[in-house]
Amino acid sequence: MGLKSRLKSILEASPFLFVCSLPLRRLYTWLRYTIWSDRWIIRRKFKRLVGYTPDLDHPKTFQEKLQWLKLHDRNPLYHQCADKLRVRQFVTRVTGTSKYLTPLYFLTDDWREVRPENFPRDLPFVLKCNHGNGNVHLVGNPAEADWTALRFAMRREMAFRNGLWNSNREWCYRGIRPRIMAEGLIQTPEGTVEEYKYYFCCGHLVVIQYGQADMQLTRRFRYLAPDYTLYPTSYMLGGDEEYVDSVKLPVNSREMLELATRLAQEFPYHVRIDLLSNGRECFINEITFFTLAGYIDVLEPASLAEELARTLVLPTDRKG
Q1: What is the mean pLDDT of each run of 10 residues along the chain (320 residues)?
Q2: Which domain of life is it from (predicted)?
Q3: What range defines the domain where residue 167 resides?
């Protein structure tokens, strides 16, 4: 862990230090990100994480093409779908039903309201913010939850409104009104959280990522072909992944594929549709336009990288 990461961990471990350091951290964020152009930030971070300087004018790789889309594809619909609250309206409109939405138990813009009396007593839930990414808290038993820790976690999340735009230049996250929300925890009968991520390029399904997590958010993965056939464990989209040996498909796997395909048709370039499954029903979890912000350091095998790049056809490709 570097010095910056250690300092951040210290500041965020203590409510007192966090509050005291907040003005300086906001000034630092402004100085580091806001005054620099999107191209400069993207080029610098891409080279540091991916390992080479991207061609942002004539992109060839999948990672480069995602950066081009950040700079040039400003479809306002992306802003709605990046918002984990407003995306629910989009899904209902496209599908004509609300059955694919997880139950919404709680909604607020005040972290102080994260208290047990405002939540169901005996229903597990997921606590998160609508404007962030990845920072979710699984609460299996509300009676045993550390509510002080949950409030502090939400306070940290609400303090920085444009974090994903600042650091990654994912423009669609900028300006989202921050809200704290709690949704029903979707689990299989075995007690795991299972997610299927469908990667589409120009309406074409390229690969499916199966993910499995326990209540401690220990994650395991496996990649599947569009027909749900298991790919070898050599398939990887991002590093440091532990794989499952097999995947037991839910009984509604065909419905999930049809739902993901239907939603993906609304977007002309790259989109990833993430669905949760309890083995019988499926629910929308997230819609993502810049997988791993495009800073994908490991993309294997070469055939997968080539197919993603080939099927993601941009105006720059057509001109060539």
Answers
A1: 63 71 75 83 95 96 98 95 96 97 96 94 93 86 93 88 77 92 94 95 97 85 96 90 91 96 97 96 96 95 97 84
A2: Bacteria
A3: 74-185
